[in-house]
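User: What would this chain look like folded?
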Amino acid sequence: MIDYLNIELQYLLFCLSTLFTVVNPLGITPIFAAMTEKFSNEDQIRIARKGIFTGSVVLIIFTLLGSFIFQFYGITVEAFQIMGGIIFFRSGLRMLDAQVGRSRTTQSERDEFKDSDELAISPIGVPLITGPGAITGVVILSGKGPTDYSIVSLLVSVLITMGLFYWILRAGNLLAKKIGITGMRVIERMMGLILMVIAVQFIINGLETIINRI
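Assistant: Here's the prediction, encoded as C-alpha coordinates.
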Protein backbone atom coordinates (compact mmCIF):
# COMPACT_ATOMS: atom_id res chain seq x y z
CA MET A 1 0.00 0.00 0.00
CA ILE A 2 2.83 2.39 0.91
CA ASP A 3 4.65 1.58 -2.34
CA TYR A 4 1.44 2.24 -4.28
CA LEU A 5 1.01 5.64 -2.60
CA ASN A 6 4.63 6.54 -3.29
CA ILE A 7 4.23 5.68 -6.97
CA GLU A 8 1.07 7.78 -7.25
CA LEU A 9 2.65 10.68 -5.36
CA GLN A 10 5.67 10.67 -7.67
CA TYR A 11 3.38 10.55 -10.70
CA LEU A 12 1.26 13.40 -9.28
CA LEU A 13 4.31 15.59 -8.70
CA PHE A 14 5.65 14.79 -12.19
CA CYS A 15 2.30 15.68 -13.79
CA LEU A 16 2.05 18.86 -11.73
CA SER A 17 5.54 20.07 -12.59
CA THR A 18 5.09 19.22 -16.27
CA LEU A 19 1.70 20.91 -16.65
CA PHE A 20 2.67 23.99 -14.67
CA THR A 21 5.73 24.44 -16.85
CA VAL A 22 3.82 23.84 -20.09
CA VAL A 23 0.95 26.27 -19.39
CA ASN A 24 3.57 28.90 -18.41
CA PRO A 25 1.42 31.16 -16.17
CA LEU A 26 4.25 33.63 -15.50
CA GLY A 27 4.73 34.12 -19.22
CA ILE A 28 1.00 34.42 -19.90
CA THR A 29 0.20 36.82 -17.03
CA PRO A 30 1.68 39.97 -18.70
CA ILE A 31 -0.27 39.18 -21.87
CA PHE A 32 -3.45 38.68 -19.86
CA ALA A 33 -2.88 42.03 -18.15
CA ALA A 34 -2.40 43.75 -21.52
CA MET A 35 -5.50 42.14 -23.04
CA THR A 36 -7.72 43.11 -20.10
CA GLU A 37 -6.31 46.53 -19.25
CA LYS A 38 -9.47 48.23 -20.60
CA PHE A 39 -11.65 46.41 -18.07
CA SER A 40 -12.22 47.15 -14.40
CA ASN A 41 -10.55 45.10 -11.68
CA GLU A 42 -13.81 43.21 -11.05
CA ASP A 43 -14.14 42.40 -14.75
CA GLN A 44 -10.52 41.25 -14.89
CA ILE A 45 -11.15 38.82 -12.02
CA ARG A 46 -14.30 37.53 -13.74
CA ILE A 47 -12.45 37.11 -17.06
CA ALA A 48 -9.66 35.22 -15.28
CA ARG A 49 -12.16 32.95 -13.54
CA LYS A 50 -14.08 32.18 -16.73
CA GLY A 51 -10.91 31.73 -18.76
CA ILE A 52 -9.48 29.29 -16.22
CA PHE A 53 -12.78 27.40 -16.12
CA THR A 54 -12.81 27.11 -19.92
CA GLY A 55 -9.21 25.94 -20.03
CA SER A 56 -9.80 23.45 -17.22
CA VAL A 57 -12.79 21.88 -18.97
CA VAL A 58 -10.74 21.43 -22.16
CA LEU A 59 -7.86 19.78 -20.27
CA ILE A 60 -10.19 17.50 -18.31
CA ILE A 61 -11.90 16.36 -21.52
CA PHE A 62 -8.58 15.50 -23.17
CA THR A 63 -7.37 13.83 -19.97
CA LEU A 64 -10.38 11.51 -19.94
CA LEU A 65 -10.27 10.88 -23.69
CA GLY A 66 -6.51 10.33 -23.92
CA SER A 67 -6.60 6.53 -24.02
CA PHE A 68 -9.62 6.57 -26.36
CA ILE A 69 -7.74 8.80 -28.80
CA PHE A 70 -4.84 6.33 -28.83
CA GLN A 71 -7.13 3.38 -29.48
CA PHE A 72 -9.43 5.06 -32.01
CA TYR A 73 -6.65 6.34 -34.25
CA GLY A 74 -4.24 3.47 -33.62
CA ILE A 75 -1.63 5.81 -32.20
CA THR A 76 1.06 4.48 -29.89
CA VAL A 77 2.02 6.30 -26.72
CA GLU A 78 5.62 6.34 -27.91
CA ALA A 79 4.71 8.21 -31.11
CA PHE A 80 2.81 10.78 -29.10
CA GLN A 81 5.72 11.06 -26.68
CA ILE A 82 8.17 11.86 -29.47
CA MET A 83 5.82 14.34 -31.12
CA GLY A 84 4.95 15.89 -27.76
CA GLY A 85 8.62 16.14 -26.88
CA ILE A 86 9.24 18.13 -30.07
CA ILE A 87 6.35 20.49 -29.25
CA PHE A 88 7.55 20.89 -25.67
CA PHE A 89 11.09 21.59 -26.87
CA ARG A 90 9.88 24.33 -29.19
CA SER A 91 7.76 25.84 -26.41
CA GLY A 92 10.72 25.74 -24.03
CA LEU A 93 12.91 27.40 -26.62
CA ARG A 94 10.39 30.23 -26.96
CA MET A 95 10.25 30.57 -23.18
CA LEU A 96 14.05 30.91 -23.10
CA ASP A 97 13.61 33.81 -25.53
CA ALA A 98 10.71 35.12 -23.38
CA GLN A 99 8.28 34.80 -26.28
CA VAL A 100 4.77 33.35 -26.54
CA GLY A 101 4.16 31.14 -29.54
CA ARG A 102 1.79 32.20 -32.30
CA SER A 103 -0.39 29.19 -31.49
CA ARG A 104 -1.21 30.80 -28.14
CA THR A 105 -2.40 34.19 -29.33
CA THR A 106 -1.90 36.78 -32.08
CA GLN A 107 -1.91 40.56 -32.05
CA SER A 108 -5.19 40.66 -34.00
CA GLU A 109 -6.82 38.42 -31.39
CA ARG A 110 -5.65 40.72 -28.63
CA ASP A 111 -7.19 43.75 -30.34
CA GLU A 112 -10.34 42.14 -31.76
CA PHE A 113 -12.40 41.18 -28.71
CA LYS A 114 -14.30 43.84 -26.80
CA ASP A 115 -16.81 41.69 -24.92
CA SER A 116 -15.42 40.31 -21.66
CA ASP A 117 -17.28 36.97 -21.87
CA GLU A 118 -16.14 36.34 -25.42
CA LEU A 119 -12.61 37.36 -24.51
CA ALA A 120 -12.57 35.01 -21.49
CA ILE A 121 -13.50 31.96 -23.55
CA SER A 122 -11.29 32.70 -26.55
CA PRO A 123 -8.50 33.62 -26.91
CA ILE A 124 -7.82 33.71 -23.15
CA GLY A 125 -9.36 30.35 -22.15
CA VAL A 126 -8.28 28.65 -25.37
CA PRO A 127 -5.59 28.87 -26.64
CA LEU A 128 -3.86 31.34 -24.28
CA ILE A 129 -4.34 29.41 -21.02
CA THR A 130 -4.84 25.97 -22.57
CA GLY A 131 -2.73 25.76 -25.70
CA PRO A 132 -1.55 22.86 -27.88
CA GLY A 133 1.31 22.09 -25.50
CA ALA A 134 -0.97 21.64 -22.49
CA ILE A 135 -3.42 19.49 -24.46
CA THR A 136 -0.60 17.34 -25.80
CA GLY A 137 0.80 17.06 -22.28
CA VAL A 138 -2.36 15.67 -20.66
CA VAL A 139 -2.90 13.22 -23.52
CA ILE A 140 0.65 11.89 -23.16
CA LEU A 141 0.47 11.74 -19.36
CA SER A 142 -2.90 9.97 -19.45
CA GLY A 143 -1.33 7.17 -21.47
CA LYS A 144 1.73 6.80 -19.21
CA GLY A 145 0.07 6.39 -15.81
CA PRO A 146 1.83 3.76 -13.65
CA THR A 147 -1.43 2.33 -12.25
CA ASP A 148 -5.06 1.94 -13.27
CA TYR A 149 -6.03 4.83 -11.00
CA SER A 150 -3.35 7.26 -12.14
CA ILE A 151 -5.97 9.17 -14.11
CA VAL A 152 -7.20 10.52 -10.77
CA SER A 153 -3.72 11.85 -9.98
CA LEU A 154 -3.58 13.50 -13.40
CA LEU A 155 -6.99 15.12 -12.90
CA VAL A 156 -5.89 16.41 -9.50
CA SER A 157 -2.73 17.87 -11.03
CA VAL A 158 -4.84 19.60 -13.70
CA LEU A 159 -7.07 21.17 -11.06
CA ILE A 160 -4.12 22.25 -8.91
CA THR A 161 -2.31 23.74 -11.91
CA MET A 162 -5.37 25.66 -13.05
CA GLY A 163 -6.04 26.83 -9.48
CA LEU A 164 -2.49 28.17 -9.19
CA PHE A 165 -2.82 29.74 -12.63
CA TYR A 166 -5.99 31.57 -11.51
CA TRP A 167 -4.33 33.07 -8.44
CA ILE A 168 -1.26 34.07 -10.45
CA LEU A 169 -3.53 35.86 -12.94
CA ARG A 170 -5.32 37.64 -10.09
CA ALA A 171 -2.04 38.69 -8.54
CA GLY A 172 -0.43 39.44 -11.89
CA ASN A 173 -0.23 43.21 -11.49
CA LEU A 174 1.04 42.95 -7.91
CA LEU A 175 3.53 40.26 -8.92
CA ALA A 176 4.86 42.40 -11.75
CA LYS A 177 5.36 45.31 -9.34
CA LYS A 178 7.10 43.13 -6.76
CA ILE A 179 9.60 41.29 -8.95
CA GLY A 180 9.33 43.38 -12.11
CA ILE A 181 9.01 42.31 -15.71
CA THR A 182 12.70 41.37 -15.72
CA GLY A 183 12.20 39.05 -12.76
CA MET A 184 9.22 37.39 -14.42
CA ARG A 185 11.25 36.88 -17.59
CA VAL A 186 14.09 35.28 -15.61
CA ILE A 187 11.66 32.83 -13.98
CA GLU A 188 10.08 32.13 -17.37
CA ARG A 189 13.48 31.31 -18.88
CA MET A 190 14.23 28.92 -16.01
CA MET A 191 10.90 27.18 -16.61
CA GLY A 192 11.70 27.03 -20.32
CA LEU A 193 14.94 25.23 -19.58
CA ILE A 194 13.11 22.72 -17.36
CA LEU A 195 10.51 22.16 -20.09
CA MET A 196 13.23 21.47 -22.66
CA VAL A 197 14.79 18.86 -20.37
CA ILE A 198 11.38 17.20 -19.92
CA ALA A 199 10.93 17.28 -23.71
CA VAL A 200 14.26 15.55 -24.31
CA GLN A 201 13.39 12.90 -21.72
CA PHE A 202 10.02 12.26 -23.42
CA ILE A 203 11.78 11.72 -26.74
CA ILE A 204 14.41 9.44 -25.18
CA ASN A 205 11.74 7.34 -23.45
CA GLY A 206 9.76 6.97 -26.66
CA LEU A 207 12.81 5.97 -28.70
CA GLU A 208 14.00 3.51 -26.05
CA THR A 209 10.65 1.72 -26.01
CA ILE A 210 10.59 1.49 -29.81
CA ILE A 211 14.20 0.20 -29.97
CA ASN A 212 13.54 -2.42 -27.27
CA ARG A 213 10.63 -3.77 -29.32
CA ILE A 214 12.83 -4.36 -32.35
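The chain has a mean pLDDT of 83. If you want, I can go into more detail on any region.
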